[in-house]
Design goal:
single chain; 84 residues; alpha+beta; 2 helices
Length: 84
Amino acid sequence: MQIPQSVKIGKRKWRVSRVNMRNARGKCIPNMAWIEMGNEDPYVFWHEITHAILHDMGHPLWADEKFVSAFSKRLNQAIQTARF
């Protein structure tokens, strides 16, 4: 999967960039509308997108790592195994 450079979530355009990270695989920075990724792993992308979508919705689970991990794992699986 090719990771995009930006995505639109709600009314905001989010920048997606690859950065060197020591202690994390990815990071969602809502006040800047940035998603930073430590690698090109599609799971990391969907994980951070899940944070961003929930934040845009004003949902309190946006910062719940356990929920976001469980949801994004299944989202990534669905996307990776989709057959047309």
